[in-house]
Amino acid sequence: MEQVFSNKTLVANQAIRHMKVQDLLADTHQSSLNGEAVDVGRAAFKTTLNLLSTTIFSVDLADPNSDTARGYKEIVWNVMKEIGRPNLADYFPVLKKVDPQRVRHRLAVHFGKILELFDRMVSQRLHLREVCGSKTNKDVLDALLNISEENSEEMDKTKIERLFLDLFVAGTDTTTATLEWAMAELLHNPEALSTAKAELEQVIGKGNPVQESDIPRLPYLQAIVKETLRLHPAAPFLLPRKAQVDVEISGYIIPKGAQVLVNAWAIGRDRRSWDNAKSFRAFSWKLEDGPKPVDMDMDDKFGITLQRAHPLRAVPIPV
């Protein structure tokens, strides 16, 4: 598995990331020429989904001529919503088999739809390898299939599909939500947007694309990302943890086996730790239909990931 997710592999896939960002910029430029508003969340989701699917399968799952991305995003959000929904069975384990709120049932349906897609893609690749009669190593799927052929106990078809389920569900929705929140905060805080643009023009130069190697030279851009994650953590309660032994924390007894959630959202907005805790500090855009930045809707909606309650739509304007 190390060869699949190593730093060497990450560097080798840099061209794919660059290509997908260029696709996003091309779509944004076209919207600018047409004077059209961009659904920032949908654009970010398409880019993230295609980046993952090209890296893993060498194909774009978000085909612009189909509803694949829209349908997939709906499935992923439904998964996140069900996982984040308060469930009686989590508090009363005896109810798990009964599933009184049908949460497990709905999750099984959503996961099943995603696994069906992965099953088709893995089966097609296996058939292609059999027809060609040779191994290839062009993407993550090939690398995992090669591992599977060498050691089926370490990695088999079912494990591969389950791994992809984790990667896609965890990787697409969280990245999309963070990008949309970052853009929303910049539009909500025009001074921060102006400062970010000035840094890009000074360090990169007007009209030049940003390369991954440029990131260390863009401290304000990095601050924007960190501030976005402080105010809008992709997973507000982080990943659930289970106490391995009885433990006392701040006078509270956490019994062995208890599930523990850390409220990262509250920590990031704690006035005891942050001055002006709710304030955001750190292409030019304008808001669709002319609302003022101060009047922007900055509400979120409940789920295990933190998304905007209403999609962000912004019109790109030339600079």
From TrEMBL:
GO terms assigned for molecular function: heme binding; iron ion binding; monooxygenase activity; oxidoreductase activity, acting on paired donors, with incorporation or reduction of molecular oxygen
TM ranges: none
Pfam families reported for this sequence: p450 (PF00067)
Gene3D superfamilies per the UniProt record, alphabetical: Cytochrome P450 (1.10.630.10)
Domain of life: Eukaryota
InterPro entries reported in the protein's UniProt record: Cyt_P450, Cyt_P450_E_grp-I, Cyt_P450_sf
Stretches of the chain forming a coiled coil according to its record: none
Family as reported in the entry's similarity comment: Belongs to the cytochrome P450 family.
PANTHER family noted in UniProt: CYTOCHROME P450, FAMILY 76, SUBFAMILY C, POLYPEPTIDE 5-RELATED (PTHR47950)
Protein name: Geraniol 10-hydroxylase
Taxonomic lineage of the native organism: Eukaryota, Viridiplantae, Streptophyta, Embryophyta, Tracheophyta
